[in-house]
Amino acid sequence: MVVLNKIYTRTGDRGDTALGNGSRVAKHSARVAAYGTSDELNATIGVARLNAEGEMDAALARIQNDLFDLGADLCTPDIDKDEQAEYPPLRMIEEQVKRLEAEIDVMNADLEPLRSFILPGGSALAAHLHICRTVSRRAERKTTELASTEEVNEWAVKYLNRLSDWFFVAARHSNDGGKADVLWVPGANR
């Protein structure tokens, strides 16, 4: 259980922060950049939810919760020590990725195949979901950058990869089932 009764601690005043295992790293480290970007994504979803209703809002709420799981996963290094830990850290799991895939399949079933790239926009919700998609891609880039030098849970990377696809399909779904998608016209302004 998390208890936050004092928000400022002054422990990071020198530019470092504590990870989930208690070790300290620079606030600009690749690990902090990865989970910090997932936190930024979570905030963009909060804005998107201002325009969402029903199942879309519920799905976005599930993703926001997953992103806290992702942050907990990314802020705790030493995956190889998980089994020996008295309190094993929270890690992303295959079922979270599979849930995204199932939701993508349901939303995509009613969409016409794309014959052109689409421009981000259309409805307010779709435009916000496209912002979520691009921030999700950045979170994925930051996480794979971290994975190039440190061990990262493979399901964390897979989740982020699937999540950006989820946002793309959700944006189309939110554009009247793709009918309000704004299509790219190559060379239109030459």
From TrEMBL:
EC number per UniProt: 2.5.1.17
Top EC class of this enzyme: transferase
Pathway(s) it belongs to: Cofactor biosynthesis; adenosylcobalamin biosynthesis; adenosylcobalamin from cob(II)yrinate a,c-diamide: step 2/7
N-terminal signal peptide: none
Span of domain Cobalamin adenosyltransferase-like: 7-173
Name assigned to this protein: Corrinoid adenosyltransferase
GO biological process: cobalamin biosynthetic process
GO CC, one annotated term: cytoplasm
Xref: SUPFAM superfamilies: Cobalamin adenosyltransferase-like
Reactions catalysed according to its record: 2 cob(II)yrinate a,c diamide + reduced [electron-transfer flavoprotein] + 2 ATP = 2 adenosylcob(III)yrinate a,c-diamide + 2 triphosphate + oxidized [electron-transfer flavoprotein] + 3 H(+); 2 cob(II)alamin + reduced [electron-transfer flavoprotein] + 2 ATP = 2 adenosylcob(III)alamin + 2 triphosphate + oxidized [electron-transfer flavoprotein] + 3 H(+)
Superkingdom per UniProt: Bacteria
Family, as annotated: Belongs to the Cob(I)alamin adenosyltransferase family.
